[in-house]
Structures are given as structure tokens and as C-alpha cells.
Amino acid sequence: MSNNIHLKQGLNLPISGAADQKTKKVLVPDVVALKPSDFRGLVPRLLVKEGDAVLAGSPVFADKMSQNILFTSPVSGVVSEVVRGEKRKLLEIRIKSDRKQEYVDFGVKKVDEMSAAEIKAALLESGLWPCLLQRPYGIVANPELKPKAIFTTAFTTAPLAPEVDFVVKDEFANIQTAINALSKLTDGGVHVSFSTDNACSSVLSRLENIIPHVFEASKHPAGNLGIQIHHISPIRKGETVWTVTMPMLAAIGKLFNKGRYDVMRKVAVTGPMAINPCFIETLPGLRMNEIQEFYGNVADEIRFVSGDCLSGRNIGPEGALSFMDNQITLLHEGREYEGFGWAKPFRFNQFSSNHTYFHWLLGWLCPDKKYDMDTNLHGGERAFVVSDVYGKVLPMHLFPVYLAKACLAGDIDKMEKYGIYEVLEEDFALCEYVCPSKIDIQAIISDGIDLMLKEMA
Amino acid sequence: MNARNIVDKIKPAFEKGGKLGWLHSTFDAFETFMFVPNTVTKKGSHVRDCVDIKRVMIIMVLALVPAFLFGVWNTGYQHNLAFGCGWNFWGQVGYGLLKVIPLYLVTYIVGLAIEFASAQIRGHEVNEGYLVTGFILPLIVPVDVPLWMLAVATAFAVIFGKEVFGGTGMNIWNPALLARAFLFFSYPSKMSGDNVWVGGVENFMNNGKCWFAGNGLDGFSGATPLANPDGYSVLDLILGTTPGAVGETCVIAIALGAILLLFTGVASWKIMVSSILGGLFVGGLAQAFGATAVPCWQHLVMGGFLFGSVFMATDPVTAAQTECGKWIYGFLVGALAITVRLFNPGYAEGMMLAILLMNTFAPLIDHYVIEASIKKQSKKARIA
């Protein structure tokens, strides 16, 4: 194909603990935890109190700013605990499952006969609206806007991320329904990105009513929607686009085809500390103490990450799987000293993409070698010194150091100029990984986006 | 008891509030020198590459080692040649060490003392950048430079070239070159002329004596290749057996360093290549128009051109940061260096000033490169 988008920058981390492509079991969590903090900038308004009975699909909290955006319970059961933090900030709503999974009946609907307003109303009512993220800034989509286009991806590149084709392999009809529905919400169509590996073989390539794009890129972060949108149709000032993930499209399809809020999904339990890493079928809000079989009795030494090891969230042993995520990464907390580590000619047990170590030569000799990466910082934080490391892992026409400096300075004009509208933290995760100065660039970008949200509101 | 246990035992005294709390940064510098710290990631990416600035800097120092070793020997060799001492190889190396090691002691003691003190005052970690600066500086000065001058220049460069801007990574000019420029403008008689480049010559001329005077100066001409381009064969220039600053003469040693830097990706090949192209371009023009008889390629192997291109123009902090900017920056460094050489008979070595000048303009180059790129992108978006 001549219109393929070719990206050569990037890096695939050779981290151990990839999930076997088999589903170990279906796990309806005993307790699910809903976290308003899964959504950027959301101010929640609680709609339930402890002791209330809910069904799968019953509203639990709403967005205070636009109260028609509802967030609903993934299980049927009883609200067991409302956890609040400082200044009574709402942290978690815990719902004890009754194991019966009774659903609110939203009614089977024919998408083809529905108007855009009806589709929006159905998504809002069911609690599936928050699957739609709006860019710039990665916030929950504003239902009053009409986006330039809607984007989704049929391939992922994040470390150990589950293959899209595997996690949605039985969901083709649902995804088609969802795409038909969403394409009524925009004039720009639903864009689906494929990699050259799955452009022909994937069942998703038979989807209709989509605008397909093929990326000739096998390295992370080509699978990030931010990178893809940047190359398909960059976001300019004043424009908005929406993004959605494939598993969430399947859930949207189920809403219309079956009339229920069913966010059951295949979740990959991955990472060097995962025992027999594989998939489980479960719900968002699954708490880590329910998957103890994957890590045994060493919770103190483990970092629990909802998402991938580069841009996922550290949720801790008591934490819960985030709303959007379909991956859990278990990493060893690297609280060990290493004598003269930086001075050793070779460090075979650790990985570096930097040519000052020789893993790049090793990569030719044994390309399948995987490393048990841990959370050690491997150095101390310094100022920006080396200048061309970020560009090698960021396939965007951007100047990451300049954008980061603009964010640090809080200079809105410059942030705008250097492309803050097009990026999310996750796009810089690899920059952060390779940075010899150990600069937390994701946090810097995140603060920049928060500032934009505040100033532009 | 292993080293780690000892460190753990004395560590509490250096923590904030401990007896030696005011030495916290110094302790930290030595601790992290010996042990990669046990800190784990707090924000963002949970796993990190095992490269750090220490690693980058140590590669830089390693790349300078061939030039250093050759410089030690050449110092002895030149002295032996000038004074006819009749030394063998080890005699020459011995004299070289005697002359060069004090330079290193001075730059490292003065420079690191200031670095540690300023890190201490600000409560920062000690930056590794000075390890490289301190290693380069003795290589770009005449071997006979008085040690107190070197100390003053080092202090000036570290304080006003780096620390006032906020330390390594924030500086505008290459600190080692700044020190050299300070010496050059403050004490020109010790930094130029025919007599300063060979150990002991000036002292002998002024006082009639020096260490290891041998047979005295018989028909000595200490002119460097820059002052007397016809005085040395091409082979001499490439081998580096000529008078000059300690580490700048040997093309082979510098090339070895360059290979390491390029192989490890520590220095930008774009800057090296474009600087050489810039030098060739101006040298070639001058030759074509008859402004000079020196062939353009010969400029590359004379004086500090190659040393500057490989080790100093490529300093990632002070060079241009954008990829396209690096081409422009490097080209102008090379072009300006040769321009100064050709058209300023009073001062034949233009590399230092060319790099310092381009350090100054590097942010401007980057600014225009970025503007142009953004304009191009938005034009593309409008068409799409």
C-alpha cells in the first residue's frame, strides 16, 4: 500500500513476563472499586451512599460539571464503602458483588435507526460515555461537541500490552455496531489504525464504515493514539477529536446489541514478577488482592501497575484496575544498591538502549533475550544534558525538550506552539525511560496539560 | 564487612540534621560514585534505562584518554628534542608526567572544590560534568602555563561559566574553553608566541635555567604548525610530534577518541562532520582565491581544529540542540575557525573563539530551526 505511514523512531522494551494467549479464568471480583481519579480533571458528584443496592449499570457518581455524564457500577451488589481522602476528596467507591451479575436493562436498540442525539443519550445513560476521551488533554468527551473525527487503534506497541486481535477476537459484531453508532457523532468518520502485521490478517480489517490507516511501524510508541493522530490528522488549536479503545468499542456494541452495561474484558496479567502470566476475564475495579495467585506472598516487594510499565499507574497492593486498562504489570521494586554499576563495561542483567552500553550489539546476537526489569531509577536526577535521546524514541514532529521546558515555565503560548494539544503523557513515556538525566518528563507534561485545562476553561 | 555495610553505618551522620549534615552533597557524591542508588521511580515510567549521566561522562573521559597519553609523551619528546637531553621513551614519558600531572591536580582540585561547595550550598547533588571539563582543560593549554594562572582560570570558568547559570546543563559556554579564553585574554604572553609550547623553553630563555636543561637550546624554533605551516611534514602533523597544546596535536589519538564517541553515540556525528566540512569550505575558498598557500585539508590536522571539533564543539549542553541546528552550528564552527586562522595573523588559533561564539548563537540557531519546522508543519496541515 502506498499510503502507509512509516515511522522509524521508537523502542520496544525487551521486558520479561509476556502473557500467554490463553484465558485462565473468568473472575467476577468480590469487591470492585470505582475511582474518579481514573478520569483527568473530573470532579465527581456521588449518587449513592453506603448500603445502597446497585445493579450492573446503575449510576454511582456523575461529573459535577456536566451532570448527564454518569459513571456506573460494573457489578450488581451493595455499596460497601466510600473512601475519602484529604479534604473529603472522593477516592474510591467500593461495591461488594452479589455474584449474580444482574444488569440494568437498557433495551436492545437498532443503531441504524437511531439519531446522533439518541446514541449520545444511550451512552450517557449507561455509563459508557466516559470511554470516549477527548483530545486535546485526554479528558472525558464533552457531549455537546461534535468532534473532527474519532480514532481507535487495532494494534498496540506498549511493553507487554495485550494484542488487540486477541482481546476482542469474539467481539467483531459488537465492534461493528459501536462503529456504526459512533460514526453518527462526527462528520470525520471513525479512523482505525492497523500495523502492517495485522492490516490484512486481523479480523478487524473486515470492519465496515471505517477509515483504515496502516502504520509501517513495529516499535513503541507507534501504537499510541496520540502518535497516530499526529500523522493522520494533527490536532490544531480549537479542534477536538475523540478516541476510544477496541475493548471499549466492544462494550459499546454490547450496550446496543444486548441492552446491558457489560465491561467484562480480557485483562493481561504481565510483568517479570507475574507467576505464569496470562489473561483473566474480569471487570475494571478488580482489586489486586484478588489476583494473589499471580504474585504469591511477596506483595511488599512488588509494584502493582494498572496499565503498562511505562505509562501505567502505580496502584499499590490494595489498588484496583483502572476503568480503561486491560493490562496489569507486576514489577519488582528495585530497592537494591549496585556497586559501581555505571562504571561496569557490561551490565548483562539490565537493559539499556543507550549505545554506551552494548546491549544494541547483544540485540543482534540474541534478539529474544528478555530482561527482568525493576523499578530502580538507575541513577540520580540531573539537568537536561544529552540532546538527541528523546527524538530517537518519539515519532512526532515535535521538540520534546522545548515542550517540556515550556511546561516547566508554565508558558501557555509556547506550550501551544510546541504542540501541547497533540500530546498526552504516555507519548513521552519512552523519552522518560531513555533519559540519562532521569527527568520525570511525563509528570512535567501532565502538569502542563493540567495548567492548560485550568487556563482554557 | 563489605563496603556497603560501612557506607550504611556512616550514612546517618551525613543525613539532614546529622552531625555532618552540612557535608550531605559531598557524601552523596561519593556514595553514588560507588553505588548506583537504591531509589525507585516515583512518577511516570516505572522502569528506567540503566544509563545515567555518570555513564555518559565516563565515556567522554575515556575518549580523551588517548589524547592525554599521547600528550604526556609528546611533552617529554618535545622537551627532549629542544634541549637534546638524549632521553629514551620512558624518560620522555617521565618528564611528561612531571609536567602534566600537576596541571590535572590543579584543575581537579580547584574545579571539584567549587563544584562540591556549590552543590553543598544549594543542597543539590554534585554534577558529573566537571569530570570532563577538568580532563579537557589541561589538554588545551600550553604545558608551561603557570599553575596559579590555571587555578584562577578554572575557578573563573566554573563559577562564572557554569555555576552562576545553575550548573551542568544550564551553562551557555563550554567551561573548559571559557577557562582557556580567560587565560588567553588575561595572560597572552603565557598563551601564545613560539616559546610557550615546549616545556621549559620560556623559563630557560628568561632565566637561563629550567628542569632538565640538557645541552641547552641549540637552534630551537618552537613555532607551532600554525605559525610555521611549512616547518612540519604531513606525517608529523598526523602523528602529532609537533609543539602545541598538550592534547591537541595527535590526529590519530583524537581519531581514536572520535571513534569511541561515535560508536557509543555520546557525541553528535553531525557536528563533527559539519564542522570539518565548514573548515574545508573556507580553507578551499581561501586557497582557490590565493589567500593562502596552505591546502584546505591541512588545516584540519593542524592546531586545535580537530580536537575542538571532536571534543568541544560536540558538548551537548552548549551546542545546538536540534538536529538541523547541529549541521548549521557545526558548519559555522569550522568555517569561523579557519576564517580566524587565515585572516588574523596575530592569533593563529581560531577554534576556541569560533566555538565560544557559536555556543553563544546556538540557541538562536535552534530558535529559527524550530520556527521553520513549525511553519512547515502548519502548512502541511492546511493542505491536508
Write the SSE topology:
The complex is a heterodimer of chains A (457) and B (384).
Chain A: E1 5-6, E2 23-27, E3 31-34, E4 44-46, E5 53-54, E6 59-63, E7 70-72, E8 77-84, E9 90-97, H1 116-126, E10 133-135, E11 139-140, E12 150-153, H2 164-167, H3 172-182, E13 190-195, E14 210-216, H4 225-232, E15 241-243, H5 246-258, E16 265-270, E17 279-282, E18 302-306, E19 313-314, E20 327-332, E21 338-339, H6 359-365, H7 400-409, H8 412-417, H9 429-434, H10 441-456
Parallel strand pairs in A: 1-14, 2-17, 12-13, 12-15, 13-14, 16-20
Antiparallel strand pairs in A: 3-9, 4-6, 5-8, 6-7, 8-9, 10-11, 10-15, 16-17, 18-19, 18-20
Chain B: H1 3-14, H2 24-34, E1 35-36, H3 53-83, H4 89-122, H5 129-136, H6 147-161, H7 175-186, H8 188-191, H9 201-207, H10 234-239, H11 251-264, H12 269-288, H13 296-301, H14 305-312, H15 323-343, H16 351-383
Helix pairs in contact in B: 3-4, 3-5, 3-11, 4-5, 4-6, 6-7, 7-16, 11-14, 12-15, 15-16
What does this structure look like?
The complex is a heterodimer of chains A (457) and B (384). Chain A has 457 residues and is an alpha/beta fold. In chain A, 20% of the residues lie in helices and 20% in strands. Chain A contains 10 helices and 21 strands. Chain A has a 7-stranded mixed beta sheet with strand order 1-14-13-12-15-10-11, with helices on one face. In chain A, helix 3 crosses helix 5. Chain A is globular, with a radius of gyration of 22 Å. The mean pLDDT of chain A is 92. Chain B is mainly alpha-helical. In chain B, 63% of the residues lie in helices and 1% in strands. Chain B has 16 helices and 1 strand. In chain B, helix 3 (53-83) packs antiparallel against helix 4 (89-122) and helix 11 packs parallel to helix 14. In chain B, 49% of the residues are buried. The model of chain B has no long low-confidence stretch (mean pLDDT 88). At the A-B interface, strand 21, helix 9 and helix 10 of A face strand 1, helix 3 and helix 16 of B. Strand 21 of chain A pairs antiparallel with strand 1 of chain B.
